[in-house]
Structures are given as C-alpha cells and as structure tokens.
Amino acid sequence: MNVKPKSTAQTVLFAPVALTPEGWAEDVRVGIDQTGRIVAVETAAKPQTGNDVLTGRILLPAPGNLHSHAFQRAMAGLTESRGPDGHDSFWTWRQLMYRFLGQLDPDQIEAIAALAYMEMLEAGYASVGEFHYLHHRPGGGAYDEPAETSARIAAAALETGIGLTHLPVLYGRGGVDGRPLEGGQLRFGCDLDRFAALYEAAARIVAELPADARIGVAPHSLRAVSPDMLAAAVGLSDGPVHIHIAEQTGEVDEISAAYGARPVEWLLANADVDERWCAVHATHMTPEETAALARSGAVAGLCPITEANLGDGIFNGSDFLAAGGAFGIGSDSNVRIALAEELQTLEYSQRYRAHARAVLCAPGKSVGRTLYEAVLAGGAKALGRDAGAIAPGPWGDLTALDADTLALAGLADDARLDAWIFAGDDTAVSDVWSAGRHVVTGGRHVKRQDVEARFIAQTKSIRGAL
Ligand code: NGQ
Ligand code: ZN
C-alpha cells in the first residue's frame, strides 16, 4: 500500500512498524485529517518535518470494546465474598448489583463512566459500546430530562475522547413470565412509548458529539423484553442492535420452557438477525445454534473476563470460528479493564474446554494475530464504527505499543502480539488515538489526574456500602 499523504492531513504519524491490512510494514507514515479519519498511509517512507515520530513503538489499529455497563466499574471487586447461605451465582451477584445502582445519582454515573472510559483508552481500546439501562431515578420516576443519564454517558465520552456507540436499553419486564420490574430494576423500566421518547432524546444528545459517535438500540434480553417489544425496539433504530443472549443455563431453561426453543434458536427464528446484530455472550449454544449464529452475520459479543467472574460458562469458540463467525470483545461488568488480558482469557477458556493449545486460530498461524484481527473487525462491525484498519478511509483509531517493554523487546512480526497477549499486559500501551484524538501518551490518559480525583470524590460514600 502506498497512498501519498494529501494536503488535507492534519496530523501525520510516523511509525517504525505498523500492522496494515497487508500485514506488518516498516517505516509507515499515517495521515489523519481534521475530522479524525485516516486519509493517507505510506510504507517504506521517510519521516518528514512536522511528523509525529513514534520512535520505538509498534502502531496497531485500536479495537472497540463492544459491551460495557460503565457504572458497574465502581462495584468492581466488591462482590467477591461468599454469601451466608453459600449459594453464590450470577443471580445473587445481580441482586448486589441492583442494590449498588440504587444509590447512584447522575453526577456519580458520569464520574464512574469517565473513569471506565479513561481506563479503556489506556488499555488500548479506542471506542466503546455502552449498553445503557440506568435511565431513571431510583423507583422509576423520570428525570427532568428523560435522557439525563444518556447525557451523562455522552459527557463522559466527550471528556475522555473515547468513540461512543450509545445503546439505550429497552427493559420492560422482570422475567419471561411477564412479572413486573421490582427494586433496583425500576430504574431501567420503559414501556414502548417511554422508550421511544428516550431513544429520540438520546439520539439528539449523540448528534452533538464528534462525528464518529453512533447510536444503536439494545433490547436487554429475551427475559426483559417480550417478542413484540423486541420487534418494536429494533424498528426504532437503523444502527446496531445488541441483546444479551444465552449467558446462563438458568436463562436457557427459562426461555426454553416458555418459548419451546433455546434462546439463540428462538432469536434466529423470530427476528431478522443479520450483520447489524450483536449477540452478547451467546455462551450456551448447541452445535446447530453455533453454526446458525455464525451464518447470520451477527457478531458474537464475548466478554471473557466478566464471563469468568460471573461463572457463566464457556463459549464454543473453535466451532464458531470454524463456521466463519464474527466476534468481538467487551469488558461488560468492567470488573477489570484489560485488553490483552481479555484476549488471553478468551483463548485460555478455549484451552480449558478443548484440552488443547492454540485453539482460536488456523494451523500455522499466530493466536495473538488471529485474535487481534478478529476483534478489530468484529468490534467495528458491532459498534457500527468505520474502524479497525490502518488504511485510508476509516477513523484514526490507533494504539501504539512500546517495542522496548520487557515482554516485547527483541521480538518481530506476530510474536509481538503473542507476547503482548500471553506474557505482557496493557502497560505496553504507550499511545492511543480515537478518531484522531490523541488521548493517551506515555501510557497515561491526558486527563487521568482530574478523572481519577473526581471518581474518588464521587464514589467514596458508596463504595463501602455494598
Ligand atoms: C446487566 N449483566 O445487564 O448488567 C446484566 C445483568 C441481567 C450481565 N448479563 C442483568 N452480565 O442480565 O438481567
Ligand atoms: Zn451486559
């Protein structure tokens, strides 16, 4: 690839090595225009005056984090003791999570989201899909602005510079039997009219963000929306559609009993699942469901660290990959925000399952390179974001690794990605650009001090209360 930088390039980066769609390239010059899009890529180039020369760094396209509930960052690590009756599970964790969110006000929601987004950027992600359901006041009453908390998510994205795909969630019932919402869930609840108004308001808020921000829609789960509500929610948006599906065996049993079909099976038969869709978790699938989901074009939204933390089960990665399925990664509960570790956990889950090594890649290939490129493509697709490649056209979503960091020193080609993912960590990340916004330098977010101080001040009173 050799596309000469045009005069429209506002920022020109020069990297000694970069991962391009054609593979590893040396002496790469990348031009980014004032809108944040990559406009030129030149390999075997020479640095010119005014270029931002990334000495000693490896330039990668930055992936998107396709699934986040930002507010849960503030309860990370607080649900790790065993309850008095000893039956701890996803469902008891959910009760604690509801109790925790019952205390949050909009200032806290914004401060927590800013911290989470800053940490995502420092980990090497350039964008996030915020699966947002904390809409109303405790008890369910409306804020003066119905999309108040969406505005807070948008403000956190703007402050930190992360590329936001906002996914307002429709959460309409307490379970598949249609029981009403209760307790903490009342803050999520919308009927269709209320949700349509909220979606419109959220869309106006997102339209005020930089041009890379997007909006989509998220019917929460087959538990929380009826078939009619699911269809209506999907019809509100022409953006991405995200849904939690088949995360827990209890959920599979509940849906199977009520609908006579397993969750993924039911969804594929009753919704027009296509490339717009992201099936979050998709943990429990039969071989037939696995192949059918892969064929649908939907992205499987895998959240390996959270799925381990919540005891969900293990996604059938090898069969899904063999069937050509698209997947990306999400930090979900944000119990830990760590890009390299998220990929490592994904591959290790498959090794436990298959009693084998190097599972998620084809013979003769590198696991690190395979996983990294898969989540670049899957993340961009799930977020409706034109990103994932160092090539002219997409947003300038870029991550630079420090080539001299202990895990990477002396390595070349795909071994760099393997060593980063399996032997290193996100301290190797030196710089991150989101749609050209250079928000991480020297491994730190440019606003770290302020964002961290505000998070601590805003959450001091609630972090001890779980
Ligand atoms: C969520 N989290 O929406 O935050 C859910 C819990 C539910 C995960 N599924 C609530 N990991 O599923 O009902
Ligand atoms: Zn989730």
Characterization of the model:
This protein is of the alpha/beta class and 466 residues long. Helix 2 (106-123) packs parallel to helix 3 and helix 4 runs parallel beside helix 5 (227-236). Helices cover 36% and strands 20% of the residues. Strands 1, 2, 3, 4, 5, 15, 16, 17 and 18 form a nine-stranded mixed β-sheet that branches. Strands 6, 7, 8, 9 and 10 form a five-stranded parallel β-sheet that branches. Strand 8, helix 4 (192-207) and strand 9 form a beta-alpha-beta unit. It has 14 helices and 18 strands. The chain has two domains: 9-61 and 388-449, Urease, subunit C, domain 1 (Roll), CATH 2.30.40.10; 65-383, TIM Barrel. The radius of gyration is 21 Å and the shape is globular. It binds N-carbamimidoyl-L-glutamic acid and zinc ion.
List the helices and strands and how they pair.
Elements (H helix, E strand, L loop, with lengths): L8 E12 L2 E11 L4 E5 L9 E2 L3 E5 L2 E5 L21 H12 L4 H18 L3 E6 L15 H13 L2 E8 L21 H16 L6 E2 L2 E2 L7 H10 L4 E5 L3 H11 L3 H8 L6 E5 L5 H10 L2 E4 L1 H6 L7 H6 L3 E4 L9 H16 L12 H16 L15 E5 L12 H9 L5 E6 L2 E5 L2 E2 L2 H16 L3
Parallel strand pairs: 1-4, 1-5, 6-7, 7-8, 8-9, 8-10, 11-12, 12-13, 13-14
Antiparallel strand pairs: 1-2, 2-3, 5-15, 15-16, 16-17, 17-18
The chain binds N-carbamimidoyl-L-glutamic acid (NGQ) and zinc ion (ZN).
